[in-house]
Hints:
Layout: H1 2-25, H2 35-57, H3 71-83, H4 86-117, H5 120-140, H6 142-145, E1 151-152, H7 164-188, H8 190-200, H9 202-207, H10 212-238, E2 240-241, H11 248-262, H12 267-286, H13 288-292, H14 302-317, H15 333-350
Helix pairs in contact: 1-7, 1-10, 1-11, 1-12, 2-4, 2-5, 2-10, 4-5, 4-10, 7-10, 11-12, 11-14
Amino acid sequence: MIILMxxxxxxxxxxxxxxxxxxxxxxxxxxxxxxxxxxxxGATVAGGVAGRVIAALLGFPFGVEFAxxxxxxxxxxxxxxxxxxxxxxxxxxxxxxxxxxALGGIMGYLTAYPAIRLREAYLGITLLAFADILQNIxxxxxxxxxxxxxxxxxxxxxxxxxxxxxxxxxxIVAVALLVFIYIEFLTRSPYGRxxxxxxxxxxxxxxxxxxxxxxxxxxxIIGGAIAAIAGALWALYTGSFKAITYTRLxxxxxxxxxxxxGGTGNNLGVLxxxxxxxxxxxxxxxYKHEISSYLMISAEWLEYILVGLxxxxxxxxxxxxxxxEKPTHIIPRREIEKxxxxxxxxxxxxR
Length: 351
């Protein structure tokens, strides 16, 4: 049961982040190497923004005191209140996710300005630098979220009691599936077809009147909002927040590996890639001591080796991923088949 719960946890969080990455990379062809930025914003909202809001509503200190030495006591007192009030806990959870999505979208809009002017590696490096800058600000400026000491996060799952772990995992998976459905509808809509048109032939899309700048900004807003939801859910699940624990490996390069394994530009492929990787990561984590006895290195390094190895093998052997992207048919398949059959009949009659 513990193994299954860990797989579902990694799957749920990984799916949300990777779907947001796939929207920007797979459909818009943006070199998004700063995915950690939006995730970190969402986690900071859960720890330092939504927590302050609920503290103020319940009459607890709102300002610097919330992230200071009294943080543990304040959060514990709030958790005791939420434990006896499921409705308030659910409202707090919804509020946290809404705030995280809003600020994540704002951060996506701000980072869209470099995307207007920069291309390829230059944009990727810039987004990567933005993520590191924000991490250092939150890490060294204590009033935001406790600085180097970190901060305890108000727990909306406390009212589940002994089933708190399982319930929080189920909520995360449910949110992940809702995000998957939303992204599927979005990418199958005219908006998704415009993204593919810009990705495949930007000049032609501009000639046909598509606003490239606006589409880039809108895509980064949606991607940032979705990734921030994943960051908020992770902070709520762990019950604590430290900016330094949100690394590029976990929140940028792992999602890239998930996406490349499953298939870039294919949401179903992303789901499959995340599931496979989640199983591998969980088994490595649980059985790392047993694995270490058979290896010359510590099993803790297997994650680093695995992500690098998978990316290299995918590029060399199957660059399209396990489930390649399928062409989008604007006209229903039946109509296409009728047109093809009528053309074939006409050509046969001429002969």
